[in-house]
Amino acid sequence: MRLVDSFGRVATDLRISVTDKCNFRCRYCMPPEGLPWLAKDELLTFEEIVRLGSILVANGIQSFKLTGGEPLVRKDLALLVAGLRNVAPDADISLTTNGFLLADRARELRMAGLDRATVSCDSLLRHRFAEITLRDALDEVMRGLEAAAAEGLGPIKINTVVMRGVNDDEVVSFAELARTADYDIRFIEYMPLDAQDEWKADLVVPGAEILDEIGRHYPIRAISAEPGPAVTYGFVDGAPGKIGVISSVTAPFCETCDRLRLTSDGHLRACLFALDEVDLKGPLRAGATDEELAEIARACVAKKWAGHHIGRPDFVKPSRSMSMIGG
After folding, report:
1. Average pLDDT over all residues of the chain
2. Alpha helices for the chain (secondary structure H)
């Protein structure tokens, strides 16, 4: 069985949010005071996540990305990694984290079966990092990156949300980091998913502009793209590291999207910007069979729309912000 929509797109990638909680307060995501967190019994247990993961693998899912909130604030995350690895030995299992707790967890995650780590980092300047996240934690994040690299959780990727007038003057500095540390830097356009409703189109820095700025300092060329939304570039002079841009706003990749998202409270979303989602936790806890749960998932995917409407008059922002949906 496959998870296929009416446009012929086949879902193979599942983003699993393990918690809505986060220890940072990034300005493009949530307010300084945080958000009302889910109660413990509202979260999927690791056993429930593993069961749903196993069902979805049987229906064509090939990769898992563990997200949050901040996934490493969930206790014993390595147990979930091991559980998913047990039911999906051939799946690609990765983690997206803010990196603050990664240095102490990288080894146990790798030993449990984690393949790769992606770290979100929006500034290489300590004072600016603190302004964006409301945490003076850049040193800890850099240590997390180094620990992930030492454990072989590569290629190490850094996700950087670029905002005009905030950190757009650092794109070349991130390119230099890629060249010296052999990291893959992925620049992400600022998307309307903040809980504060502060997103404005004029804060978006188009991916093409980012590439032009880097190219003026270090010539780059397109290389074979990995499956996914990022268009990837290498350095013409052969320096290590790669540059990627995810232009969700100015150049959407909806027609090739293969992603699903499982929220921490057990809802399946066929699109990051979807206006509806289906409940898997309720039927699961009510005793639904694996096939019944699979049919719910297939029906959700079948109704996936052609794509989001950012920039159009009919765009409606999802009721849940990024931290509640999962990255």
Report:
1. 93
2. 46-57, 77-87, 102-112, 126-133, 138-150, 171-181, 207-217, 281-285, 290-302, 322-325
For residue 166, give the amino acid letter: V
Mean pLDDT for the stretch of residues 194-218: 89
Q: How many CB atoms lie within 10 A of CB 67?
A: 27
Whether residue 69 is preceded by a cis peptide bond, meaning omega within 30 degrees of 0, is yes
Q: Provide φ and ψ at 119, rounded to 5°.
A: -115, 130
How far apart, in Å, do the first and last CA atoms of the chain sit?
Answer: 26
- Residue 321 near residue 195, CB atoms below 8 Å: yes
pLDDT in tens, 225-278: 555 577 899 999 999 999 999 988 888 888 999 999 999 999 999 998 888 999
Q: Which CATH superfamily is domain 13-325 in?
A: Aldolase class I (3.20.20.70)
DSSP state of 204: B
Q: Which residue has the tokens 């540390």?
A: 181
> For residue 197, what pLDDT band results from cuts at 50, 70 and 90?
confident
Break the chain into its structural domains and give their ranges: 13-325
What six digits make up the tokens of 85? Answer: 């690895």
Q: Are 244 and 186 in contact (CB under 8 A)?
A: yes
Question: How many angstroms separate the CA atoms of 315 and 311, rounded?
Answer: 7
Contacts of residue 226, Cβ cutoff 8 Å, sequence gap at least 6: 232
Q: What is the 3-state secondary structure (H, E, C) of 180-192?
A: HHCCEEEEEECCC
pLDDT, tens digit, for every residue of 99-155? Answer: 999 999 999 999 999 999 999 999 999 999 999 999 999 999 999 999 999 999 999
| pLDDT for position 195 | 64
Q: CA-based angle 10:11:14, to the nearest 5? A: 170
